[in-house]
User: What shape does this take?
Amino acid sequence: MNLDTLKTTWKALDERLTRIEALQAQTNDLERARDAEARAKAGQLASRRALRPLAIGLGVQAVIGAVLLVVAATFWGSRIGETGSVSLVASGIAVQLYAIALIASAGQELSLIRRVRMTGAVLDMQGALAALRRWRETIGWVLGLAGGVIWVPLLLMGFAAAGVDLWTQRPGLVGAWIASGIVFTALIGAGLRWVYRHPRLAAAMRADPAGQSVRRAELALTDVRAFEAEGR
Assistant: This one.
C-alpha cells in the first residue's frame, strides 16, 4: 500500500468516525430530551396528584359553607320582626357572612388548582402554584382570625334554636364571650406581627398556611427544574 492510498484510507476512516460521533451525539441528545420530557411529565403528574387532597378538602369546605349559609339565612330570616330579636338577627347575618367567605375562598382555591392542572409547562405550573400559595397564606389568616370570634354568634344561634335567648337572659356571659374572642384574636394578630419581624419564623409561618399539598406539589416541580438545569 503506497502513501497516497494510506492517506485516502485514513481520511475515509476519519470521516466515518466523525459521522459516527455526530450520530452518537444526536442519539444522546435525543435520549436526554426524552428523559427530560419523561421527568417533566412525571413531575407534573406528581404535582397534580399532590393537590387532590386539598381539592377534596375544599369541596368539603364549600359544602359546609353552603349548609351553614342556608341555616344562618333561615335562622335570622325567621326572626325578623320578633321582639328583642335584633341580637339574634345580627348573629345569623354574621354567621351567613362567614359562610359566604368559606364558599368564596373554596371556589377561588379550586379555580387556582384547576389552573395548575390545565397548565402544561413546568414554569407556568410553578407560577400557578405560587398564586395558590399566596392566596392560601392570605385567606388562611383572615378566616382563622374571623373564626376567633364567629363561635360566639354560632353559640347564640344554637341556644336560640333550643329556646334559650342568652343575649337577653345572660348578657354578662355573652359579653364575656365576645370580649374573650376579641382578646384572643388581638393576641393572635400581635403574635403574627412579632413573628413576621423574624425572617426564619416568618418563613416557617408562611409555609404552614399553604398546606402539605401545595408544598408537595412545589417540591415535585422543583425536582424537575433541578434536573433540567443539570441537563443544560
Residues 168 and 176 are 14 Å apart (CA to CA). The radius of gyration is 31 Å. Helices lie at 3-50, 52-77, 86-118, 122-161, 166-169, 171-195, 199-210, 212-231. The chain has a mean pLDDT of 77.
